[in-house]
Amino acid sequence: MEMRKLILVWVTLVCCLGGVVEGFTYDDKEVETEEGKSVMFERWRSHHKMESISAEDKMKQYKNFKHNLEIVHSTNKANKPYKLEMNRFAGMHFAEFKSKYTGFKAAAPPKIKPGKKYVTREEWPWDFKYRNVNASDIPPSIDWRANGAVTPATDQGDCGSCYAFAVVATVESLYAIRTKQLIALSPKEILDCCNCGGCDGGRTHDAMMYIVQNNGLTTEKNYPYKPVFETCSVKKENDVAVKIRGYEQVPFNHEQSLMAAVANQPIEVSIECEEPFMLYKGGVMTAPCGTSTSHSVAAVGYGTEPDGTQFWILKNSWGPEYGEKGFLRILRGVPEKEGYCGINTGPHFPVTEECSREHAPGGDPVVHLSRDL
Length: 373
Known about the structure:
- The protein is of the alpha+beta class.
- It is 30% helix and 12% strand.
- The chain contains ten helices and nine strands.
């Protein structure tokens, strides 16, 4: 009964959030002339309740707007499995957007022997709790939102704190799965107290380690988010609501392992964001993408479209108006071992005491360091 209530609350919140700002639309004829674009630009600014800016800044914004409009218009006219829109980011240059709205810093990858680029799941030298999950036991699809284990998407603002949001999302979900209680936890605590990098970006494993060493996290209600790095509130930091035992890393560049992990709990992953991601509206993102990861999100599920297109479901931190109620879907099942946009290159997930097979309660936390293979 409690889980049903959680699901109903989540669906209600999503529906309400989705109604706050309807997507900006335009007529094809407006794109054909400079006058039409100019009028559209003013309408776009009004639609997204943009603040007044200087004439110089407004000209720069208009230039970016026209560039992004061309991308959105041409993409949506093509037969692609995803759609773009003129969202609130459409007046930004992508380089500016990326500097403000991402924030993942990759750690040094595990060392492997010269001439060996990948390792198999069996060769992975650290404890991986889903190591023995057979391919036949991995469900064809999973969506932890439908299981009441994912809080609604929120907004990191123009602060490079995605690493905090992604890690918090995985801890929230693990706690919900274990206890049937869905509690919104505090990315702000990690931002202020973790010494991970503040708004300049950080490493997710540092954020995981902070939660372990601090014996847990407080709630979002107790330590509400603001997109600014401030002095840590020790009083709030010590008001712990949820604890974790440690964290593990999914064997890198091994999609089956990532699927096995996501089938059991949402997982922190990092991806490379290319220009279309900024303007994503919905569908399965398949735009050309590299593997130099720069943005942390939480993989909360996966599935397959009726046409056979496989996808991951990602919880983002760019606000509930972004994409599919704050979530996005990206391509899954690509030939490259790194995965689409590098999603397979370094996933992490929290564990609780009862989850750990390597350490008895009271022992050292499950934290793995690089070593040669």
